[in-house]
Design brief:
The chain is mainly beta and about 190 residues long. It has two domains: about 20-85, Thrombin, subunit H (Beta Barrel); about 105-190, predicted glycosyltransferase like domains (Thrombin, subunit H, Beta Barrel), CATH 2.40.10. It is about 5% helix and about 45% strand. It has one helix and 13 strands. The chain has one helix at about 180-190, and strands at about 20-25, 35-40, 45-50, 60-65, 70-80, 80-85, 105, 110-115, 120-125, 130-135, 145-150, 155-165, 165-170. It has a six-stranded antiparallel β-barrel. The termini are far apart. About 20% of the residues are buried.
Length: about 190
């Protein structure tokens, strides 16, 4: 069977995906549902093993038990495997909030866990005594409490102050002492 090529979009770039082993369902436009296996995942799409041939550009819905469902589009299909890209999520309008403390851009990763979910390693983009900006694996709602784990520091609670696509601003429940912040910035390799 010939391979169908991915549909290219402007600004197309594949982000690294995390290997997973999850069972789920794929629903096609005609309403027929198929059991699938998710093999890799990131916040923009996933790879699946599927028992039927899919067409590039075909709209589908992917559902995983206890995780919800999301609209997606088939990017490529070959030999029982397919790459799906998730439909963009409607963005919440975010009001501009004046910051209580200046933020410093940082390279690095932290552990992030939503209550009742697994822990993920995510990129931290900036950090202050009051909070941080992170990339997300699972998208929280504004107000959700997350557990934040920086290397060498005890786990802290942070509340999602805003969510914009797959980045979020977390406000720490307890402010970090400036001396501890300096140590954290050194460990993360901030300039």
């Amino acid at each position: 069977m010939p391979e169908t090529q991915p549909k290219q979009t402007s600004g197309d770039r594949r982000r690294p995906r995390r290997a997973v082993d999850m069972r789920g369902y794929l629903t096609r436009p005609d309403g027929i549902r198929h059991v699938i296996k998710l093999t890799d995942l990131n916040y923009g799409g996933c790879g699946v093993q599927v028992p039927v041939e899919l067409q590039v550009g075909e709209p589908v819905e992917v559902a995983v038990l206890s995780r919800g469902s999301i609209a997606a589009e088939v990017r490529w299909y070959r030999d029982g495997k397919a790459g799906l890209v998730f439909e963009p999520i409607a963005e919440e309008v975010r009001k501009q909030v004046e910051r209580r403390a200046g933020r410093v851009e940082v390279p690095g990763e932290i552990g992030l866990k939503a209550m009742g979910r697994g822990t993920y390693r995510v990129r931290v983009l900036d950090l202050s005594t009051d909070g941080c900006k992170v990339e997300l694996v699972e998208r929280p709602s504004v107000g959700d409490v997350m557990l934040v784990k920086f290397e060498g520091i005890e786990t802290m609670e942070g509340e999602a102050a805003w969510v914009d696509g797959y980045t979020a601003g977390l406000r720490f429940q307890h402010r970090i002492h400036p001396a501890v912040l300096e140590l954290m910035l050194q460990r993360l390799g901030a300039a």
